[in-house]
Amino acid sequence: MSRLAIAVLDDHQGLAPGLADWGGLPGPPDLRYFTHSARDEDELVLWLRDFDVVVAMRERTAFPASVIERLPRLRLLATTGLRNAAIDLAACRQRGITVTGARGGRSGRTSTAETAWALLLALTKQVLPSHQALCQGRWQPVLAGALSGRVLGLAGLGNIGRHMARIGQAFGMEVIAWSPHLTPERAAQDGVRAVGCDALFQAADVLSLHLVLGSSTAGLVSAQRLALMKSDALLINTARAGLVDEAALLDALTQRRIAGAGLDVFWHEPLPPGHPLCQLDNVVLTPHLGYVTHDNLAAFYAGVVDNIRAWTLGGPLLLLTD
Q1: 138 catalytic, yes or no?
Q2: Which of 174, 193, 269, 309 is catalytic?
Q3: Which of 240, 246, 257, 275 is catalytic?
Q4: What digits encode the pLDDT tens for the residues 143-153?
Q5: Most CB within 10 Å of its CB: which of 78, 88, 240, 309?
Q6: Alpha carbon distance 31, 320 (integer Å)
Q7: What pairs with residue 244 in β-bridges?
């Protein structure tokens, strides 16, 4: 019987081999780690056509039906996280492919909020232009902003949003929030004032996105809603790029209809070289670092290994559902 062939995708830092006990899997299996992303679907299929198991890191690589149907050997798709909108689950079911998820570590949710605050503070305190000016021999080229007394608007008040709210309150900010199902009573439990969607965009000095991407939230940050924002307002997105209309945001930033944006997620990842965002001086960009911590990745990969082991032995699995 041939050895189980396992592909581990998008191991950008080359750390996956040491973050879990892959050698403890039955077999032992034939493992291959990919440290960069496929350029297109054809390259992805070429990589994966001889593998029984594919390990996907969150939503870094898409698995639409057009890919799934071209991987006849694939039997298990083991993703990290408990949801992955980049996987066509219906296509997997049709092909009889098992899809499992894996829980992250304790730092997973708090780290995303920390990344949002890193972007927010970098913009507010003019960290990047000040650093660049100092290295060029210039002193205090721009004024820093302040957060106390300003309004933090949260689109989404789930686990990450509540963490954002607590930090904002510690800075002395007023915190308001909206989400499709948020009630005033629920918001008040966290010391937050619930508002309508348009009111959120109009009132926020900083608007931070913490919503799940779905049919009701896709394109939420549209040209019309960006036009509602204050000219000195900041937009922070560490959630999903699809919440934002890319062209509308680029136009608003280029025309300086809003003051700036801090982005950790992008419409195409990795961000293509020469992307227009990289030409702007009112943005701070990070390469989807929100959940990328040592503890979180170690927990993800440990869960993946547990699922693969259980799958080979016929044990219980943590299945991914719609």
Answers
A1: no
A2: 269
A3: 240
A4: 999 999 999 99
A5: 78
A6: 23
A7: 221
What's the CATH code, domain 108-285?
A: 3.40.50.720
Tokens of 34: 């990919």
- Fold type of domain 5-104+293-313: Rossmann fold (3.40.50)
One fold for both 5-104+293-313 and 108-285? yes
- 114 carries an active-site annotation: no
Tell me the CB-side half-sphere exposure of residue 222, using CA atoms within 13 A: 9
pTM: 0.93
Question: Would you call 288 a catalytic residue per the annotation?
Answer: yes
Which of 60, 150, 162, 288 is an active site residue?
288
32-90 pLDDT, tens digit each: 999 999 999 999 999 999 999 999 998 899 999 999 999 999 999 999 999 898 999 99
Instruction: Quick: pLDDT tens for 106-126.
Output: 887 799 999 999 999 999 999
E strands in the chain: 5-8, 30-33, 53-56, 76-79, 98-100, 151-155, 174-178, 193-194, 206-209, 234-237, 260-263, 283-285
What separation in angstroms does the CA of 10 have from each of 52, 152, 216, 244? 17, 34, 29, 24
Please tell me the total number of residues recorded for the chain in this structure. Answer: 322
